[in-house]
Amino acid sequence: xxxxxxxxxxxxxxLFDGPNGDLxxxxxxxxxxxxxxxxxxxxxxxxxxxxxxxxxxxxxxxxTAIKNDPIVAGMMNNLPKLVFSRTITKAEWNNSQLxxxxxxxxxxxxxxxxxxxxxxxxxxxxxxxxxEQNLIDEFRIMVNPVILGRGAPLFExxxxxxxxxxxxxxxxxxxxxxxxxxxxxxx
Amino acid sequence: xxxxxxxxxxxxxxxxxxxxxxxDEELLEFFSSLLDDTGIELFGRVTYQxxxxxxxxxxxxxxxxKSTLDFADKFNSIPKIVFSSTLEKAEWNNTTLxxxxxxxxxxxxxxxxxxxxxxxGIKLAxxxxxxxxxxxxxxxxxxxxxxxxxxxxxxxxxxVNLKLIETKALKSGVVAFHYRAQSKVVDSESGKR
Lengths: 187, 193
Description:
The complex is a heterodimer of chains A (187) and B (193).
Chain A: E1 4-11, E2 15-17, H1 30-41, E3 43-49, H2 50-60, H3 63-68, H4 70-78, E4 81-84, E5 96-99, H5 103-112, E6 117-121, H6 124-132, E7 138-144, E8 146-147, E9 152-153, E10 162-171, E11 177-186
Parallel strand pairs in A: 1-6, 1-7, 3-4, 3-6, 4-5
Antiparallel strand pairs in A: 2-9, 7-11, 10-11
Helix pairs in contact in A: 1-4
Chain B: E1 4-11, H1 25-36, E2 38-44, H2 45-51, H3 54-61, H4 66-77, E3 80-83, E4 95-98, H5 102-111, E5 116-119, H6 123-130, E6 136-142, E7 144-145, E8 160-169, E9 175-181
Parallel strand pairs in B: 1-5, 1-6, 2-3, 2-5, 3-4
Antiparallel strand pairs in B: 6-9, 8-9
Helix pairs in contact in B: 1-4, 3-4
């Protein structure tokens, strides 16, 4: 069985984005860039909710991204991707496929296939729904050194309580701290 | 000048729900060690009333674990200030009730020499943070996601940038994050820092 992991940036107060979708607080540097490449090297499929999918598709296919960040752009554009949405009609980003229904079955059969890990990047609404269905095997949460006070929390309106087991931590020079957890109890 | 230190428990998703926190021996020892560097503990009314008579009772009954009693004894003996315009009296040991504006009072306390000032409530802490009066933060992130409830820093009036000093993982999976406030707020009227 391969792992489905969630990778997300949050503020110290648990927010996924600031007012009006503000992501300017994302603290990224060369060390993070190297980490991102290592993580994608261990990943052979990426899952998205609609909003993150559209944002990432626009960014990683842009000339800016391909010129400034060719390695990650190449990986993001070439890796197989699934977008989960009932509102869009097709998925046009290279090597991506739209999934409208039977999500849990789709994930279970994907996890049963041989391969590297499967990632969910961003996609806070998808993360809530997948967490509630107990589909996520590992939570990788990058805590940024900022408190915003206002914005949308990651795991907003989760209908169940999730207890986690801390696996490890890594401190980045930027002041970011990455926390690895696995789910321990959902009720 | 002395530092104002804020220390709080929080869920991974930013909620202040004390019923889900893991208050084990190691966590209590951690808070006890913070009290060793504390000169005065500050409270708003709500947090004060959560703590008194709970901690005086723990010290009196002496039925809890050693770490709990150590913490309770230190907490009960340390000088305390509660800021409230509605509370009639403050009966917890070594406690002063202050009715005047907390911001001005705290700013004055910070000018004095002595051990750290320590704050652990939500509303008062938010107001002190919003005015740039908090110098250091200890956030104890508990390994739980609750999805709803009272957000720890809800309604903060400005973004607070922090500089990471250190982290410490406890056996329970709680991760203690230690930060220094990144910059002082410039007072918009006088232009003074």
